[in-house]
Amino acid sequence: MVNYPPSDDLLPYMLWMMLRIRVAEEKIAELYSDQEMRCPTHLCIGQEAVSAGITAALAPSDLVFSGHRSHGHYIAKGGDLCAM
Q: Cα Rg for the chain, rounded, in angstroms?
């Protein structure tokens, strides 16, 4: 659980996570036209802070369920980008 006020290393970590999510989302958008992803894709570009902020407040054992624009939640919770 996050202790408030945030520690000195939390904010840089959250920025790094937001950038990681953005780069992954941009790569998905770039590759989508290759027709190898055979499902609708709803990107979370512009909403990276939500995923980074929510997961920063969770314990490692907490579970997250997301049904729409969920790439960011998966990545921020520690999901494997290659497996995704």
A: 14
